[in-house]
Amino acid sequence: MEELSATGSEDLLDLLLESDDLATFLQRLCEVAAGDLSGPDEVHCSVTVARERRKDTIASSDEMAAAMDEIQYSSGEGPCTDAVRTGHSVDVPDLLKDERYPRYRQAMEGKGIRSIFATPIPLPSTSRASAALNCYSSDPGFEGQSRAEDLAALAAKSVLLAVRFENESDKSSDLAAALESRTAIDLAAGVIMAQSGCSQEKAIDVLKTASMNRNVKLRDIATSILARFDDADPKTYFS
To answer: In this predicted structure, what is the pLDDT of residue 168?
Structure first.
């Protein structure tokens, strides 16, 4: 596994530059964190980034961490969820004795994980995102809390940049989808205008009426017309 050098944050920025997207960067970040925190006992790491109006991005260092995260999200409670929500570190020295998360503790029985430490990755409110580094160990009393918090702090700038890059990419994708949709609607309106001799306003009204009557998105109505634009009578599209 990769480990951080003394330059720390610069290593993470390099890692970001080498990654194609947010998910890839977080995956590599998890692997670096697990390598850095593991000693005689292996530590499994995951990172969760929650963005407004976007599906959470979850990455893990290995299958064990991924499985532990899935159990936590399925149970609806746990230290990782609390760290993202509250912005404070959550330490579970021994999951078998902890009473804060009864559903999670029950779901984790027999999974081999005894201690969990989750610490927020500090992001400014302007990022409209929250994140946390989650650490799992098979031994009780995880002792890497301070180092995990240091790693989270080191990762903050890189995670912030990755989130901003992803947000810009999402905006570009949304714009491209909107333009594609608008193009399909305009072309379909043109087909109706050519075949019926109506105005563009009337053609758009026809499309909107069909969309409402069929409870189908306007773009999908337009696409269906373009797929059959050789039909002689546009009225047959809505019969």
So the answer is: 58
One domain for residues 33 and 126:
yes
| Other Cβ atoms within 10 Å of 80 Cβ, number | 27
For residues 53 and 76, the answer to whether their CB atoms sit within 8 Å is no
- Which residues have CB under 8 Å from 46's CB, separation 6+? 30, 58, 59, 60, 61, 65, 66, 68, 69, 80, 133, 134, 136
Structure tokens at 60: 């893990």
Q: Mean pLDDT score of the chain, rounded to an integer? A: 81
Assign 234 a pLDDT band (cuts: 50, 70, 90): very low
Q: What is the pLDDT of residues 36-84, one digit of tens each?
A: 999 888 999 999 888 876 667 689 999 999 999 999 888 999 998 899 8
For residues 44 and 65, the answer to whether their CB atoms sit within 8 Å is yes
CB of 3 closer than 8 Å to CB of 36: yes
Q: For residues 120 and 156, what is the distance between their CA atoms, to the nearest angstrom?
A: 9
The DSSP line for 166-202 is: HHHHHHHHHHHHHHHHHHHHHHHHHHHHHHH---HHH
Using alpha carbons only, give the angle 54, 124, 23 rounded to the nearest 5 degrees.
40
- 76 domain-assigned: yes
CATH code where residue 207 lies:
1.10.10.10
Given this model, what pLDDT does residue 220 score?
Answer: 84
Range of the domain at 40: 9-169
pLDDT at res. 40? 86
DSSP letters, 11-57, are: HHHHHHHT-SSHHHHHHHHHHHHHHHH-SSS-EEEEEEEEETTSPPE
Q: Is residue 1 situated within a structural domain?
A: no
